[in-house]
Amino acid sequence: MAFWTFLYGNGGNINHEIDIELFGKNNVIYSSYTSENDATHVNGNVDYQIYDNVQHVYRFDWYRGEKVEYYIDDVLQAVITTNVPDHPMKVWIGAWCPSWAGEKTNNFSEMIVYSFEYKSFD
């Protein structure tokens, strides 16, 4: 399961992206990119099973070009201050299992999004 923002262009020279990626039983990666080669990642774990059928709130606060604060259930989990995007991006939300995240535990995944909210602080 993941949600991310993304702006890609100029032959790969622009890859502005902010991610929260959850995989396995309780693994999470917080990421911030300004190009394919310029990225910062923070690995973590959540204190619940990702597929626990309990509603959780995932959020990041993006301070353009300065920092990204990552929250789960309103608790600060990570802060990234390097490779922070400064361009507007599109938002993507999805259930997924990339090959690098480990072996799939089943062939069916379901993710229910109860709400999505975007706020601009400009």
Q: Tell me the series of helices and strands, N- to C-terminal.
A: EEEEEEEE
Low-pLDDT windows of residues: none
Indicate the mean pLDDT. 86
Supply the number of helical segments: 0
List the helices and strands and how they pair.
Elements: E1 2-9, E2 14-23, E3 27-33, E4 39-45, E5 58-63, E6 67-72, E7 75-80, E8 90-94
Antiparallel strand pairs: 1-2, 1-8, 2-3, 3-4, 5-6, 6-7
In a nutshell, what does this entry contain?
The chain is mostly beta strands and about 120 residues long. The protein has no helices and eight strands.
Word description of this protein:
This protein is mainly β. Helices cover about 0% and strands about 45% of the residues. It has no helices and eight strands. It has strands at about 1-10, 15-25, 25-35, 40-45, 60-65, 65-70, 75-80, 90-95. Strands 4-3-2-1-8 form a five-stranded antiparallel sheet, with no helix packed on it. The chain has a three-stranded antiparallel sheet with strand order 5-6-7, with no helix packed on it. The two termini are about 30 Å apart. The mean pLDDT is about 85.
